Structure formats: C-alpha cells, structure tokens
Amino acid sequence: MQSIIEFLRPHALPLLYAVLIVAVLPLLAGYVVLLERKVMADMQARLGPMRVGPHGLLQPIADALKLLLKEDIIPERADKWIFWMAPLISVTAGLLAFAALPFGPGFLIADLNIGLLFIVAISSMGIFGIVLGGWASNSHYSLMGALRSAAQLVSYEVAGGMALVAGVLLAGTLSTREMVDAQAAQGVWFIFLCPVAFFIYLVASVAETNRAPFDMPEAESELVAGYMTEFSGFRWSLYFLAEYANMIVVAGIATTLFLGGGARPFGGVSWLRPLDFFPPLFFVGVAGFCFYRAPKQPVLVQKLVMAAFGGLFLLLALPLGVAATILPAWKAAVHGGFWFVAKVMLYIYVFLWIRFTFPRYRFDQLMHLGWFFLIPLSIVNVMSLGIGLVLHRQAGWSLPVALGLSTLATLVVALYLAHVGEQRAGISDTEVESEA
Amino acid sequence: MMDQILFYFFGGLAVLSAVLVVTSRSAIYSAIFLITTLLATAGLYLTLRAEFLFAVQIILYVGGIMVLFAFVIMLVNLDVALHQAQFNRQRWVATLLGLVLGAQLLLAFLLGHRDGANRDLLNLPSVAVTQLEPNTQLIGDVLFNKYVIPFEIASILLLVALVGAVVMGKKRI
Fold it and tell me: pLDDT, tens digit, for every residue of A319-360?
C-alpha cells in the first residue's frame, strides 16, 4: 500500500490534468459539433440551430441528453462481445492520445521522450474500434464501411507519418514539449520551413479522421452510415466522441509540430509585446457581445442564458488578465493553453471549411491520391528537406535559402506527380468506358 | 514493487492471450487476442524502459500488420471456417512441449543467478529509471554508426521484397 502511494505521489498533477481532460472533452466535442453546424449554416446562408438556448448555445447539452436516453439496440445476430467492446476501443485510443499533447508549458500529462510516436501509435489503434465494430454488426453496410476505413487509414498513415518525420527532422526531437521549445528557440513556426509537409499532414489527417471529402467509411449516399449503421444511443455517441477526440488530437499534433504549440504568435518580437493582452481582451469582447445581445433575445430564459454565457466568458478572461498583468510567472502556462486551443480551433475550422467546400471523393480516387501522389511526395519531401538541412548545418548555407530550395524542389516533384496522375486518371477512365 | 506488479501483469496477460490465440475457434477472436499479446509485450518493453521499442511495436505490429490481418479475416467466410475441423490432434503434444519449455525457462532462471543473490520470483531486479534515458537517440546512433552496413542490407532486402510484391500484385506496371 505504502509503495503504491509512493508510486502515485509524483503523478498527482498529471492525474488531475487527465481527469480534467476526460471531463471537459465530451463538452468540448459537443461544442465543436455546434460550431460545425453553425459554420455549415453560415456557408450555406442559413442560421443553423437556433431553438435550444440563445443562438442554439445549449444544443450540445440537449443532444447529449437525447443520446443518453435513446434505446440501445444490439442486432440479433451481432457478435455481442465485440459489438460491446468496439466503441470502447475507439474512444479509449482517442482519449489516451491526449496524454502527450502539450497544451502549454506545464500543462502536459506526460512529457514522454517519444511523445509524438506515442500519440501516433495510440491513435493508430483507434481503427480497431471501427474495423471490429463494423464486422461485429453483421451487416453488409457496416462491413463495407469497416473495410474501407481500414484500407484508407493504413494508406494515409504512411503519408501522414512521413510528413511528421519532416517536422521531426527540423525539431530534432520526438518529445512534444521540446518541439514547441525548438520552434520558440528558432523563432519560426515549422509550417514556414516545410509548408509541403504541413499540407500533406493536413490532407492525411482529414483522411485519418474519416472527415469529408474522405468520409468514404460513412458515406451516407452509399453505405447509410458505414461502420456505425447498427449502433445507436450511447454506443453511437462513443464513436462520435472518438471521432471528435481524434480531430482534436490531429489538430493538436499539427499545432505542436507545425504551428508553434502554445507559444504566442510573434513571441520573439519585442514591440508586439502588447499582444499578451489579446487573450483577456478577446474574452472580454465576447462577453460584451453576449451582454449586448442578451436583451434582444425573445424569451426571458434565453436572455438569462445569454447573460450567463457572458458571465462565463468574463470568468475566463479573469485568469488570463491576471496572468498578463499581475502574475507574469503564470503567463506562459495560462496563455499557453489559450493559444494552443486557439490554434487547434483554427485547424478544425479548416477541416470544416474543406468539408463544406469539396465534394466527396470516389474510393479509387482516394486510393490514387494516397498512393500515387501523397506518399511519393512525402518521401521526396523528407529527402529534399534532409538535403536542405545538411546544406544548412554542414555547408553553412543560410536556413531560408536551403529550405526554400528544398521546398521548391519538392514542389517541382509535386507538379510532375500531379501531371502523371492526371494521365493515369485519363487512362483508367478510358478503360472504364471501354469496359462499359 | 510497482515494477513487479507491472511485469507480472503484462507478462501474465501476454501468456494468457497467447494461449487464447491458439485456442479460440473464431479467427477474429484469435486476431483480437493476438493484438492483446502484442500490446502486453509492448507493455513489457515499457517496464524495461525501452520506450522507442514500445512505440514501434504498437505502430508496426498493432497499427499496421494486425489491421491488415483483420482486413483479410473479414473477407473470409467465417461461418464456414467455424465448422471445419481445426488442427486439434496436436493439442496435447503442444501442451506438453509448452510445459517443457516453461520448465526450462524456470530452471534457467533459477540456476542462472547461482553466483548472484537474486533467486526470488517476487523480487526481480529492475532497470534503473535513468539507465536508458535517450532511448531513441541511442538506437539511431547504434543503427547508423556501428551497424550501418547490416542496416542498409536489411533496407535493400525490404526494398527488394516491396518491389517483388508490386510485380506479383500487378499485371501491368
């Protein structure tokens, strides 16, 4: 007993963070869904959810209640054990990956020596939830969705992994905390040093999280809902939570490796120091908007809820403001969290933007894009980046010139690959026509 | 103490699920137990502070190879496979051989520490926390300095296998 307590003592703070993340994440996922619906509505010139709470602000809570109260159906001839287990695998993998994400200096559950590899490894296990769930449902739609998902994830993991290797080459470490430090030390986000790698990771991460335009595993028009077809109620919501957790994880990886993590933009520029006051002022502004809109709500309850949200934002502004002015020792920790979440949200916004802009790919097109374009490009990118780094470190070229040249070379290869891919697509289309 | 608990937990899990891999009737259950075995082995690596090996084990075996296994198993008609006779005649021989192997290992463990003091199964020697700290760097250093030629030969072998697989898989390249 004593030894267990001794073992747990240094882990008290990480445990607290873990509980915090597991508790807050479902709520966050719910609000990301609301954000998604609002952004979609905005892009389609609609209003989106407006009924539950002012501007639909309580919609996620209503949705969560509905999902918890729905009937839980297990198909007659399903494999009960695996059916029961599959959503748990997905959600466990999704949540476990948060262990190594650095939300800010100090706000990190586990500063692992292999942080990035850990996240990639754990989130690559989430696919078993999809594959086994689809198989256990004993339904053709589910099985098709599961198979597509397995093929897609295995393909795009290669390209995404190679893109991450490019970032790791620049950082020189696998620890997520040291990656953020490396970017702060070099005074530049790695997105500017290897834009091609960031682009590849963006595409691969959209495919890995099964989001449109790569949402073949759950394409409504072909497969009803893919691997989730037979799932209902709470089990379905676990899959849902896993999908959004995965989105936040890939956004977190991209933020950590390419977007400077929890560091403030222009952290090294002295005359931009006033930017430190942006986070509290941002929340004060949002709170002010809430208070301004509160009297205009139609019902008294909605007025109160809107005012309550305003109060909540003011409450959030308080620690940020205190950290910026009175307690500079806390500034890095508190503001790190703000900037990290802001960058993650920006990345997720790009996800949504892509989803509502591009039509869904066909499955063979998806595989072509993965194997004939992204994977060769990511390999070439790693090679040319390596050459660029050697030119910088051994031959003494300046970093922008060396890496600019390597990026240029990669882009030439990308153009060539796109050209070849077009020809290949032309060939396969004529083949299809002649067969028809 | 915690090291012992973790070691016996992961070790027991690995052995138990390895037994279940060969005794399950359904191929998909075998695959799931194989995943559990691989994960438990990864856990054992972690108790030895071999973090890099832990991550690579999960990425390659669990996230890569086992996904392909599951992919293939799903395409097989499992209902037919369930009614077919398994290779059960070897069961007793296999059990016997397994026990003999286990006894050998136990003997080797008990005799191996004759000069040292430690022969207590509940008090195994553990790796110091700081002993293998920059694990990834060490592996990279050894692979690309000391063993660079075997490493490159293995890479070329894999490349040949890859090209061969593509040639076999596609009629027109």
Answer: 777 776 676 666 777 777 788 888 888 898 998 888 888 888
Query: Which two tokens mark A104?
Result: 């800010």
Fold of B2-127: Four Helix Bundle (Hemerythrin (Met), subunit A) (1.20.120)
Kindly list the residues from chain B whose CB atom is less than 8 angstroms away from the CB atom of residue A9: none
Q: Which two tokens stand for residue A400?
A: 């922008």
pTM score above 0.90: no
- With CA atoms as reference, report the closest residue to A230 among A127, A86, A148, A134: A134
Q: What are the boundaries of each domain within chain A?
A: 8-69, 70-263+354-435, 270-353
pLDDT at position A81 over 60: yes
Q: Are B73 and A146 in contact (CB under 8 A)?
A: no
Is B64 in Cβ contact with A124 (below 8 Å)? Answer: yes
Q: Which chain B residue shows the shortest CA-CA distance from A81? A: B29
Please tell me what DSSP assigns to residue A189: -
Among chain A, residues having any CB pair with chain B shorter than 8 Å are: 3-4, 7, 79, 82, 112-114, 117-118, 120-122, 124-125, 127-128, 131-132, 135, 143, 146-147, 150-151, 153-154, 157, 174
Q: Judge: A131–B70 Cβ closer than 8 Å, yes or no.
A: yes
